[in-house]
Every structure is written in structure tokens, then in C-alpha cells.
Design goal:
Blueprint lengths: L1 E6 H9 L7 E8 L7 E4 L5 H6 L14 E6 L8 H6 L6 E8 L7 H19 L5 E6 H8 L7 H20 L5 E2 L10 E8 L4 E4 L8 E9 H6 L3 H11 L7 E9 L5 E8 L9
Parallel strand pairs: 1-2, 1-4, 2-3, 4-5, 5-6, 6-8, 10-11
Antiparallel strand pairs: 7-11, 8-9, 8-12, 10-12
Helix pairs in contact: 5-6
């Protein structure tokens, strides 16, 4: 069981999309939420600094937090309380942070400044191993991956793409592959993103453009019948993985998993040890 903590509007909406998966315990923190064992409401403030200075005591709210935590937030004003909230999580818990970078076009100045601050602070914390890892997600890139969609389904589609991709990689990380070249991860490559790759085309769509990735892992979800009958499968996978190598110091590996799907799917995770830059306009 992994605890998912969503902070702020974006964090809570993404956390809500984990609800269909029984592997997660969902907690949400934001303004205007009902009072319950899984939601904590904050008093509205007019600036991120005021949320920080009025940080609540969450000891009771976090009493059943699992040993693995996924903490999701973005740059809304509520995110001003993020570091205070993180400090109240179980110090023995392994914390993975997912930070959502918004489309900068039309972003209010107060949110832009908060985005610049948190984007860099969170990465420094991850590099220092305060967090196990940080996943950077660029909403604009996710939008490009899912393609055209109806206005009323826009955020639902984006949030589903993020949660379903994270969930499948998480499942495979806890599943024995039928074949893999995985080895221990590079301990210094803690700044990461996730994404998908096209099975029939040598094309991958990561949810953030990482500078100088050090490690990339591919997860191949392959129908059992294809594993049994497709004699060209291994060569196809090895060719695709080689194309994903971006420089000679990059470590690339893959795992193949049996599924009951009607067609294969490919998920990927890319990791860097360098502090990243915010997406340009």
C-alpha cells in the first residue's frame, strides 16, 4: 500500500485519479474540502507565505500514512505550505515527490514566482536525498501526448494519463518480469520523469524534457500469446531500446512483463542527476 498525498487543486485532482486502484490510500489537503479522515481543509489565504505561516498540525491526519508516500503538488498558492506539510510526514517513510509544472502562458505572476521557487527547491531536496526521487511533469507536454480532446474532458484526460502511467510503472516495479536487463539504479539520478513509448513506431513521449538523462528504464507490457509466438519480439525490443540511448554515458535497461491485454504497451522512466530548467514559453 502506498499513500498518495495531494496538496492544492492540481495535487488533489491528480490524487483523486488514483482512487480506482486499490494499491493506494488517498489523502487530500486544500481549501474548501469536507472534514473527513482522508481530507483536510485549509483556511483560504491571499498569498503562499500566509499558507506557510498558518501551517496546520497534521499529526493525527497522517497517523496511518504508509511507508511509501507519493506527494503531488503544483504552484498554486496553497503550495506555500508544502514544505511544512512534508516535514510532518513519517520520517521513516520513503517520499517520492511529483511536481506539476503548468503551461506558463497566462500564468499569474504570483504563481509564476511560486513555480520558480518550488521547482528548484524540490529538486535540490531530491538531489540531497531528502526525497527518494522527484518526478517532473510538464502539463503542456502531457497535453501534446494525449492529443486533441474536448474542453470539458481536458484536465480529466491529462490527469488520467499521469496517474495511469505512474501506476503501471509502479505495478511493474513490484512485479517479476519474464525477462529484464534491469540492475540497481544510479543513486545520484533522483530527478526523473515518466512517459510512454509507441510500440509500432520508434517514438517515445516523456512528460518532461530532461536535460542530460543518466538512466532510462523501459517497461514492456506484452500479451502472453505474443510472448509465446512472436519470434521477432526480442529483436524489436532491443532495437527500440537502443534508439532511446541519448549519449554514451547513459544507462538504458528494460523489462518485459506478461499481460492479458490485447496489444502491447510501453512505459518509460528517465532519470537525471542534474537540476533541470523550467520549460520555455
Amino acid at each position: 500500500m502506498q499513500t498518495v498525498v495531494g496538496l492544492g487543486k492540481a495535487g488533489c485532482e491528480i490524487a483523486e485519479h488514483f482512487t480506482p486502484y486499490p494499491e493506494y490510500n488517498i489523502l487530500k489537503i486544500d481549501t474548501g474540502l469536507p472534514i473527513s479522515s482522508t481530507t483536510h481543509t485549509l483556511k483560504p489565504q491571499i498569498a503562499p507565505e500566509l499558507y506557510e505561516s498558518s501551517a496546520p498540525d497534521l499529526e493525527a491526519f497522517f497517523k496511518n500514512v504508509a511507508s511509501e508516500v507519493l506527494f503531488i503538488t503544483s504552484c498554486g498558492m496553497v503550495s506555500g505550505v508544502a514544505l511544512r506539510v512534508l516535514k510532518q510526514l513519517n520520517p521513516k517513510a520513503t517520499i517520492t515527490l511529483m511536481y506539476i509544472t503548468p503551461d506558463p502562458v497566462g500564468l499569474p505572476e504570483i504563481n509564476r514566482l511560486q513555480n520558480n521557487l518550488l521547482f528548484n527547491v524540490f529538486q535540490e531536496y531530491a538531489r540531497s536525498a531528502v526525497f527518494d526521487k522527484i518526478f517532473l511533469i510538464d502539463n503542456k507536454r502531457v497535453s501534446d501526448v494525449i492529443g486533441d480532446t474536448a474542453v470539458l474532458q481536458y484536465w480529466n484526460k491529462i490527469n488520467h494519463a499521469i496517474t495511469s502511467t505512474y501506476h503501471m510503472i509502479n505495478v511493474f516495479e513490484h512485479t517479476e518480469p519474464v525477462f529484464s536487463t534491469f540492475s540497481p539504479r544510479l543513486p545520484t539520478a533522483r530527478i526523473a520523469t515518466i512517459g510512454r513509448a509507441a510500440w509500432k513506431k520508434n517514438e517515445e513521449n516523456l512528460f518532461f524534457s530532461l536535460d542530460i538523462p543518466r538512466e532510462k528504464r523501459y517497461y514492456y507490457a506484452v500479451p502472453q500469446q505474443m510472448l509465446e509466438e512472436d519470434t521477432a519480439l526480442m529483436a524489436r525490443i532491443q532495437k527500440q531500446v537502443k534508439i532511446g540511448v541519448e549519449h554514451d554515458k547513459m544507462k538504458v535497461s528494460y523489462g518485459i512483463y506478461s499481460t492479458q491485454y490485447s496489444e502491447p504497451y510501453v512505459y518509460c522512466e528517465s532519470n537525471s542527476s542534474m537540476i533541470q530548467k523550467l520549460p520555455a514559453l
